[in-house]
Design goal:
- The complex is a heterodimer of chains A (103) and B (491).
- Chain A has 103 residues and is mainly alpha-helical.
- Chain A contains three helices and no strands.
- In chain A, helix 1 runs antiparallel to helix 2 and helix 2 runs antiparallel to helix 3.
- Chain A is elongated, with a radius of gyration of 17 Å.
- In chain B, helix 2 runs antiparallel to helix 5, helix 7 runs antiparallel to helix 9 and helix 16 crosses helix 19.
- Chain B has one domain.
- In chain B, a hairpin with a 4-residue loop joins strand 1 and strand 2.
- Chain B has a two-stranded antiparallel sheet.
- Chain B starts with a helix and ends in an 8-residue tail after the last helix.
- Classes of the chains: A mainly alpha (103), B mainly alpha (491).
Amino acid sequence: MLHVGLAHFLAVGALLFALGAYCVTTRKNAVGILMGVELILNAANVNFVAFGHYSWGGIHGQVFALFVIVLAAAEAAVGLAIVLTLYRHYKTIDVTRAERLEG
Amino acid sequence: MPVSLADILALLPEILLSLGALLLMMTEVFLAGARRGYQALLAALFTAAAFAAFLAQRGGGPRVLFGGFAVSDGFALFAGATICAGLLVTVVLGAGFLAPRSAERGEFYALALLAAAGMCLLVRAEDLLFVFIALELMSVPTYALVAYLRTGDRPSEAAFKYFLLGAFSSALFLYGAALVFGATGRTSLSGIAAAGGGKLLLAGLALVIAGLSFKIAAVPFHMWAPDVYEGASTPVTAFMAVGVKAASFAVLTRILVTAFGAPALAAVWQPLVVALALLTMVFGNLLALTQRNVKRMLAYSSVAHAGYLLVAVAAASRGFSGPSARGEAVSSLLFYLAAYTLTTAGAFGALAALERMGPDPQPWDLDRFAGLAKRRPWAAAATAMLMLSLAGIPPTVGFIGKLLVFKAAVDAGLVPLAIAGVLASVVGLYYYLRVVVVMYMQPAPLGSVPTPASWPLDLVLVATATLVLLFGLAPAGLANAALSSTGLLGG
């Protein structure tokens, strides 16, 4: 039987990170990009908990992950509000069509 | 975790800022019908109190707070005072800029004060968890501030770009922190330094540097800066250019010097920081050259200044320089941060003073400065002084700052980097002096609308220009204060 260990969790974390980064860079939908950011944050959370459990013991990793969850919620709230103002001005949340600044 | 009253008292500046923010939000509920002029005064009072609290705490030795989560040392106090000074300028700018546009609300000051509280916590963070919480407390209100002015579509687009890159960089930093925790089992900076680690630690270090490089807008992580700086309302731009950058530089320096200060690790990150500094100085200045839009030019200029600051960070690495050289480098970083804060906040103030009300397709074009010397001689003189300081020409504080940074680089054995920095600042002369030339040599275009004078904006201009000149002529006081503030606990 397959024994699930640290390496598996780290692989899941790395995969989540890669998917999140891919999502952020290629998505056109603003909400989709937000989800990509959340994936990266959760990738870090998986790592924290896995390292905490397998490598070092204690609750340090878990506590860190808990704080991250709270902060990610606050960040998502502000992010969605900003997406809403973007929609009010452009009537779309397609980020490629909401471009007035030069860059 | 033992918490004593002294620990809480040490956080007095942050407590004052948060209290001020809460109070200002309450005024919006209970006193909203009245005139709003008092809100700026209230915000300024709390900011000044926090500034005074930072100054009052100097002199006591470095102390660990909350069982190792935060510290109170000279470095944190100096950086915190600098941030409060930047916040004070932002508040006055906000009053002068928002009131005529009837957009002055308590939320503006509350968000700025909250973000500043995050910045002040960030500069004293001693644990990666504390760093991350403070980083978010700084960033989240700043995202909202960028979107604050709801007229026109520029702010909402800028806010989304800033949010996206900010959240991405925070996530990168966090992933790096997770790897560092995995390699060492610790999250406190001194614990990481004591534990050491292998390849995993290096990967974490690289991600932490990349995450913070977004925040300081170092090339190649600077793409967001010109768009966001242009799109945000000018007082907010000043706040971002000054506060966010100062706090991020302080925490970057603390993490690198304290947690990764071992010679073997410093040998890894020093070349990285040197490369970042070189790229940032060269490309920041070159990209600023082509801008006719003064707000974008100042945005690229703040990118270039991040390059000079990175030179000081590189010089602070312990692997190649002794402790005295490191102290010199850290003090030059602090001095440059203070000089940069004054000058850049003032320069954005000049821009805010020239901005017209109502829709304007080219609000920050170089033409707007034409003939300013005739129309408003004092404002023109102050702007010229600020531009000279940004360019690093004596007798301004910008010159002294560059001198100290490049001297520290030479003493740390980074002679080629110092030479590159001097050459890059020579390129910078062109676009800063162009503004001065346009103000004094070109007549105002026919039919140009004079901008309404607003005394808070004029106050910012005259006060920052005077301080820039004063600290340029007599830098000893500020330089000595920076020199006595280099005690990084555990570094």
